[in-house]
Amino acid sequence: MSPPGISAFAAVQAALAEQTRDRVSGAAPRPRVLDVSLMQSAAAFLGFNIADQGLLGRAAEPPNVPAGTYQGSCGHWVMVALLREPDFVQMCAVLELPDLSRDPRFATYVDRGRNREALLPMLREAFLRRPVAEWVERFQAARMLCDRVNTPLDWLADPHVQAVGAAVPLAQPGLGTLPFPALPGLGPWSVPAPALGEHTAEVLAELGL
Question: Is the pTM for the entire model greater than 0.70?
């Protein structure tokens, strides 16, 4: 669903809830005009980034450097998260780069953020020495947050996804059967998208045209 679609959905739900509250209180439901702007809907997705840069007057330094994604020798990608300062020392140990953790340029998150152009190429080179599956095993054995970055096909093949029915086949006329993710809290999509112009006659009739 697009940002305007999500925003419109939320605005309609809020308006319906307010009308229900009006009825419960014995008042007549008040009409509401929902102004859902494409620009503002997209900006809402960047709310924290906009507020952060508006406060600082500049782009903030990337957090928790060098947390992020790295490519293994197999061509796939792995995600590594760092939450505490000791995690960088542990990361360097797993990557067999112990001297890197003692480099004063990389002593703290702030230092690593300032010197990331020097740090990241060395880490990327190290990750290319082993396949992703081996890196995941090594990092998780060191009790660090790490896992493979899944493609959509990887996600569809995941045993947990299949066990909970997170992807539901939806027959779309003229296209085929699509594996659509179920909507959180609502369940699977149940109705295919209408064909181009499928309901034009009905809509025009409702408008008296």
Answer: yes
